[in-house]
Design a protein that fits this description.
Largest sheet: 5 strands, mixed
Distance between the termini: 49 Å
Strand content: 35-45%
Strand order of the largest sheet: 1-15-14-13-12
Radius of gyration: 21 Å
Order of helices and strands: EHEEEHEEEEEEEEEHEEEEEEEEEEEEE
CATH superfamily: Glycosyl hydrolase domain, family 43
CATH class: Mainly Beta
CATH topology: Tachylectin-2, Chain A
Bound molecules: beta-D-fructofuranose
Number of helices: 3
CATH architecture: 5 Propeller
Shape: globular
Number of strands: 26
Number of domains: 1
Length: 424
């Protein structure tokens, strides 16, 4: 891969590769890496809105943070349309599946608050209509900056284009609840450059989104992870020996896997406020393996860098497959080399009997994994489903060296704080 020169002089690292050989080790239904079955009897957060990607308020080091005893989460959110003629089927019944599948086009950032780390109450929209420059407000990360309650919300402004942006506002608490105020000025940060990260012009199905800023516990600098695809015209990527890895005889054929080009991107801040960023070459690439490594995030534990990212069955390349869920990689230093956790990368996947039960997992530093319910079968054949659009039961995992284990299950949407900040 070519990369642009950085202000650090030579490129600081080579991307680590998630290879086809690694992915051949992915196995659905291993109980240590499979999310417990979600019952079709789940409660919903709201009959008015669907929610999916959930972004807990945290500090720049990754700790889930409450303010004055209030937990706060941000969610991608879209109205439900049970009475809209546009979403009625031929028999006049609400076509909830179509409504749900259309949600990405009208995604908006909402927030919720809670005293218990669950039983979330709807706060409302983070930005008023017209503040965000594009139609879609896609995933990102809210960071509590200080005891004055200032919050930087990094997110993705999508359609037209896809720009990593941030908006600064404030969290205000009373004994009755939480409001987010003054999220009024959105600042564009950067877009894909076509040299390291694929642009829309290079591939209409490009991905460039999901910022996750953090401070490196070792060098103390401000960085940001994001989802990307490796730069280059669609179809031009090479799946060579390095991308294939050490496969058994008979597994050399890569089919059309050159179309799958996901990567985990990284940028470094040139300033302490995180207003000025420089993209660096990807930390991890999945060329020939998978087309999406979404919502990348870290857990820093035992002096190691645990890099997590969510991915889908449908985005895997020819000849490799795995469940929808969260995958992980570990390194001793920020720039790698990263090796797949559990040999394969799979950390927590959906069971094959309920392949779409949950998605958009976020592994928190306390080992709790939050996700949302997508759809759960309501009959044995799996033809009838119930749409979620709500928080899934939280799962506990244990991270040990290069392995992870599912060890616990908690209540729906349980996201307890790891520390509390008293506002001044
Ligand atoms: C993950 C995701 C994110 C994106 C959002 C769009 O569920 O695909 O990558 O920001 O959902 O709705």
């Amino acid at each position: 891969m070519k990369s642009t020169p950085s202000k650090f002089g030579k490129t600081p690292h080579q991307p680590s590769l998630w290879t086809r050989a690694d992915a051949l080790k992915v196995h659905a239904d291993d109980p240590t890496t499979t999310q417990p079955l979600v019952s079709a009897n789940f409660p919903v957060l709201s009959d008015e809105v669907f929610i999916w990607d959930t972004m807990p308020l945290r500090d720049i080091d990754g700790n889930i943070t409450s303010v004055d005893g209030w937990s706060v989460i941000f969610t991608l959110t879209a109205d439900r349309h049970p009475n809209d003629p546009q979403y009625l089927d031929q028999n006049g019944n609400y076509d909830v599946i179509r409504d749900w599948n259309d949600r990405h086009g009208r995604a908006k950032m909402y927030y919720w608050f809670s005293r218990t780390g669950k039983d979330w109450k709807l706060g409302g929209r983070v930005m008023a209509e017209g503040v965000s420059p594009t139609v879609r407000e896609w995933a990102g990360t809210p960071i509590l900056l200080n005891e004055q309650g200032e919050v930087d919300l990094y997110y993705t402004a999508v359609t037209p284009g896809a720009t990593i942006v941030k908006v600064r506002g404030r969290v205000v608490t009373t004994e009755h609840g939480v409001s987010l105020v003054s999220f009024e000025k959105v600042k564009p940060l950067f877009e894909a450059d076509g040299k390291m990260y694929q642009t829309e012009a290079q591939n209409a199905f490009w991905g460039f989104r999901d910022p996750w800023p953090f401070r490196d516990p070792k060098d103390g600098k401000l960085y940001m992870l994001f989802e990307g695809n490796v730069a280059g015209e669609r179809g031009s990527h090479k799946v060579g020996k390095a991308e294939i890895g050490d496969v058994p005889p008979g597994y050399e054929d890569v089919g059309n896997s050159r179309f799958q080009t996901a990567c985990v991107g990284i940028a470094v801040a040139r300033d302490e406020d995180g207003d000025d960023w420089e993209m660096l070459p990807p930390l991890l690439t999945a060329v020939g393996v998978n087309d999406q490594t979404e919502r990348p995030h870290f857990v820093f534990q035992d002096g190691k860098y645990y890099l997590f990212t969510i991915s889908h069955t449908f985005t895997y390349a020819d000849g490799v497959t795995g469940p929808d869920g969260v995958y992980g990689f570990v390194a001793d230093s920020l720039f790698g080399p990263y090796v797949p956790l559990n040999g394969s990368g799979l950390v927590l996947g959906n069971p094959s009997s309920q392949p779409f039960q949950t998605y958009s997992h976020c592994v928190m530093p306390n080992g709790l994994v939050t996700s949302f319910i997508d759809s759960v079968p309501t009959d044995d054949t799996g033809t009838q489903i119930r749409i979620g659009g709500t928080e899934a039961p939280t799962v506990g995992i244990k991270i040990k060296g290069q392995q992870t284990f599912v060890v616990a299950e908690y209540d729906y949407g349980y996201i307890p704080p790891m520390l509390d900040v008293t506002l001044k």
